[in-house]
Amino acid sequence: MDSDELQTATGAGADRRTTKLAVVGAGAVGATVAYAALMRGAARTVALYDVNHAKVEAEALDLGHGIQFMPMAEVVGSDDIAVCADADVVVVTAGAKQKPGQTRLDLAEATIGLTRDLLPRLVEVAPDAVFVMVTNPVDIVTYAALQLSGLPPARMFGSGTVLDSSRLRYLVAQHTGVAVHNVHAYMVGEHGDSEFPLWSSAAIGGVPLLEWRGSRSAGPLTPAVRDRIARQVIDSAYQIIAGKGATNYAVALAASRIIEAVLKDERRVMPVSSLLDGYHGIHEVCLSVPTVVGRGGADRQLEVPMSSDEEADLRRSAEALRAVARRFGF
């Protein structure tokens, strides 16, 4: 390779667009989101932002020391919001911490106040980013963030019931004795107490879940079994918080898959929380339904067939969230 060719190759490498992920909040969830994203090679640069200077620098340093054992990336951490500049994806985990026995909706007031201060500054430094809200109560916070930011709905959405759907599939897989990857089922609605599973469209290895007849080692998925599983999904976070103070591993893995779906333009169907505008007759509320997620964000909500009971449950969930949003002036 002669000098001109070398210069051209070097220039091409220097101009190649790399991806940047900004994680807002270096607490248990934020730091673990950064770790999961780095382990999966989701972004070339991972920036951590937190108001706690010592904490955010320590987390970035600790993560950076492990880069040798991960796909190559750069890790930076700062208490200056400029560290998020020009990010492709901004994941917001900062918010009030959920205490044992406290519902997600109880967290709304403090977290919305934080979001009101934070969002305009984030949009200013990363105006072209796709924003993923992870902070609870995620549906209310996402709706508030959408109103406060002025961003298009596709570029401002929440992690929603992506984790809840993973919990559902895990429990169904445990009961049926099949691999979790062969269970296809969604939790939808609020990421919280009014969420519910879409049993009517769920399947196990291509077999409609409601037609699953069981096996020698496991009985059928009777209504009683399905109700027990749904209740376990809803109570999972409370159980984990009571035992260890926070949920962080599974939610970070869920967030990292959302990040990858955006940065790699995967067009992956995920139950993220986004603004509904006529979905099954529901308007002006953010909640989770199966949605195509790609480089532009939450692109298209799938009109999944629902039973009459499921449609009624979705409307109830929407109304519960709308009532809370109104309480806080949205």
From TrEMBL:
Residues 161-323 form the Lactate/malate dehydrogenase C-terminal domain. Pathway: Fermentation; pyruvate fermentation to lactate; (S)-lactate from pyruvate: step 1/1. GO terms for molecular function: L-lactate dehydrogenase (NAD+) activity. It is found in: Cytoplasm. Allosterically activated by fructose 1,6-bisphosphate (FBP). SUPFAM superfamilies: LDH C-terminal domain-like (SSF56327), NAD(P)-binding Rossmann-fold domains (SSF51735). The keyword Cytoplasm applies. InterPro entries: L-lactate/malate_DH, L-lactate_DH, L-lactate_DH_AS, Lactate/malate_DH_C, Lactate/malate_DH_N, Lactate_DH/Glyco_Ohase_4_C, NAD(P)-bd_dom_sf. The active site is at 191 (proton acceptor). It comes from the Bacteria. Homotetramer. Belongs to the LDH/MDH superfamily. LDH family. This is L-lactate dehydrogenase. It comes from Cellulomonas fimi.
